[in-house]
């Protein structure tokens, strides 16, 4: 996970969380620093529940979003 962008760039994430499995294990998320709680986490965007926070131990893989071309 060390190569995952930590600048807020949205990426495709593979999530595994046995305590709260997501509806879709592959989803879009972005690394989010939170100054209020002094922590950073993966903010995952889910249709049903809004945004959810996950941490590195829950992320099993990632890849960049496909490039959109106007061609």
Order of helices and strands: EEEEE
Structural class: mainly beta
Question: What percentage of the residues does DSSP assign to strands (E)?
Answer: over 45%
Distance between the termini: 33 Å
**Which stretches are low in confidence, meaning pLDDT under 50 for 5 or more residues running?**
none
* Oligomeric state as shown: single chain
**Taking Cα atoms only, what radius of gyration do you get, to the nearest Å?**
13 Å
Major sheet: size, sense and barrel closure? 5 strands, antiparallel
**What's the β-strand tally?**
5
The general outline is globular
Q: What is the helix content?
A: under 10%
Q: How are strands sequenced across the largest beta sheet? A: 4-3-2-1-5
Average pLDDT metric: 84
Number of helices: 0
Concise synopsis of the structure shown:
With 71 residues, the protein is mainly β. The chain has no helices and five strands.
Description:
By secondary structure, the protein is an all-beta fold. It has strands at 11-15, 26-34, 39-46, 50-54, 59-64. The protein has a five-stranded antiparallel sheet with strand order 4-3-2-1-5, with no helix packed on it.
């Amino acid at each position: 996970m060390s190569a995952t962008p930590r600048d807020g760039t949205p990426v495709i994430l593979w999530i595994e969380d046995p305590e709260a499995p997501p509806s879709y294990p592959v989803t879009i998320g972005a690394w989010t620093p939170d100054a209020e709680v002094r922590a950073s986490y993966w903010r995952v965007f889910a249709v049903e529940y809004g945004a959810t926070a996950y941490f590195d131990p829950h992320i099993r893989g990632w890849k960049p979003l496909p490039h959109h071309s106007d061609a």
